Amino acid sequence: MYSYYGKLSTELYDFTKPVGKSIGGDLEYYLARLQNTEGRVLEAWVGSGRFLIPLLEKGFVADGIDYSADMLQSCKERCAERGFTPELYQMRLENFQLPHKYQAIVMPTGTFCLIENREDSINARKCFYNHLEAGGRIIIDLLLPHDFKAGEITTKAFSLPNGEGITLESRSIDMDWVTQKTKTLLKYEKWKDGKCIDTELQEFGLRWYGVEEFRLILADLGFINITCSSGYVFGKYPANPHEMITFKAEKGGDRQTL
């Protein structure tokens, strides 16, 4: 019934989040944290390359993984336009197996919270751990549903350069305080000459975490030297629910998580 980051979602994403666009300062923050990184970098849920391509332009050896075929195709095309051929993988985060180990795995803009299922999120973190080199790092953004209001409906319209347009209707369906999840229904419609020519329906779920909860989860998996920042200011402990929360942690020891 629902699409998963399909053609219209990808087209709107490409339009509103062009290559190199920094969202709240995430690009600058991550580049600073990745200084002196000489090994491979993996962007989890790479999307269409907004964040990955600046890494490639800075000389990083960077790969990308995503489950959306449309997003990956867009990423591939945007990379090719700039002469890059990174390794891109269409896989789910909870069970991916790649041929490389990474010095850093990054996941900006709160996309980790898109993993709704608790077991899937645990398995994704295990996959991250197992794909890191000894001493390798993860840098992950988390967000809090500070402005979620069940029952709220919003609509936005976007005019595209070719004269067409896309409208996005967002319906906030439910917030589950016990399982820490929200559910939103997104309806994309593409318009030309006043007529709807395409539509997509997407169920958009988010799972949020408490700050110390997530720190304990990482420590239990074997991560060490865990730091938590907010608002893309390194070391600033979260105090404002509106700000993005960023965890940085290192792989400790050589153990494999199962």
Description:
The protein is an alpha/beta fold and 258 residues long. Helix content is 24%, strand content 34%. It is built from 6 helices and 11 strands. The protein has a 7-stranded mixed beta sheet, with helices on both faces. Strand 4 (102-107), helix 5 and strand 5 form a beta-alpha-beta unit.
What brief labels describe this structure?
globular, seven-stranded mixed beta sheet, four-stranded antiparallel beta sheet, 6 helices, 11 strands, 258 residues, alpha/beta, 34% strand
Head-to-tail CA distance between termini: 33 Å
Unreliable spans are none
Share of helix, binned: 10-25%
What share of the residues does DSSP label as strand, in percent?
Answer: 25-35%
Structural class from helices and strands? alpha/beta
The pLDDT mean sits at 95
Which sheet architecture does the biggest sheet show? 7 strands, mixed
Q: From the alpha carbons, calculate the radius of gyration and give it in angstroms.
A: 18 Å
H-E string: HHEHEHEEHEEEEEHEE
How many strands in all?
A: 11
Placed side by side, the strands forming the largest sheet appear as 3-2-1-4-5-11-10
Principal-axis shape equals: globular
Tally of separate helices: 6
